[in-house]
Every structure is written in C-alpha cells, then in structure tokens.
Design brief:
It is built from five helices and three strands, in the order H-H-E-H-H-E-E-H. It is mainly alpha-helical. It is 50% helix and 7% strand. Strands 1-3-2 form a three-stranded antiparallel beta sheet.
Length: 151
Amino acid sequence: MSKKIVSKDTPLAEITLRKYEKPHEGMSKRDSIKKLCLSIGLLQPGDSRDIVVDIFHVMLETPTELNSEEIQTRVISYRKQQNLALHGIAQSNIRRQLRRLREIFLIEKINNTYRISENEKIHNIFEEKIKKFYVPTIMARVEEYFKHIKH
C-alpha cells in the first residue's frame, strides 16, 4: 500500500481586511489602534484578549528600540493605567504578538530589540509595504488559482 502525500495548507502570506466605520474625532488612540488591528486581522471581532493592541500602542509611542521584556513592562503599566485586565501578558504571548506584527511589516526586529519598521510613519508603512507589495502578491496568487480552475 503506497503512502498518500498530503500537502500542508500553510499559507505563505495572509492578510484579513475588514471595513469599519470611519474614524471620528472623539475616538481615543487606543480605540483607533484597536479598529486598525481589527481591520487588518490582527484581532478578531469579539476577542477579549486584545494585548496586540497595547503592544502596538507601546511601539507607536516609543521612539527607541525596545526588547520584549521592556515591551512587556510598558504594556503591563499601560493596561493598569487604563484599568484593563492583565490578560495575555505572559512573555511568550508578547513575543508571539510581536512576531505577528513583524509578519505584517508593522514592526521590525533588530538583534533582540523591536521598533516600528524603519522608524517610519505607519501610514507610509501601509502604503509601501502592505498596499504596494504584500496585498498585490497575495492577490496575484489568488488570481492564479481562479485561472487554474477550469470552469
């Protein structure tokens, strides 16, 4: 009996895009970051574990490079300040969320520290890395599958 080869359905790249209402003047920075995280799939609707929002917030507010322990300390301090539950603050989870932010090009790792990619404005990162590079490569591959299916 021959073994059947099973391919793994692991994506090479992925992004989730969701459309929400427009940001408004009274919206807090944390709420804006949360909607951005929801919009690009870093956070799922209804998730109570939203630590990625605070990690990204800390990264945006810090002009210098930080290691994961410094990020954890700042996130804990920020969540206490905002009277938020201390869920998801384990070092292993902080590193996992940092990896997710890196995979979508919002932050970069230099040695053992992290910073916003190239210390660039996040709108520029979106334009140059996500909108012009990441999304078109994903769209091109999806199109190849549409063409490959002969119907």
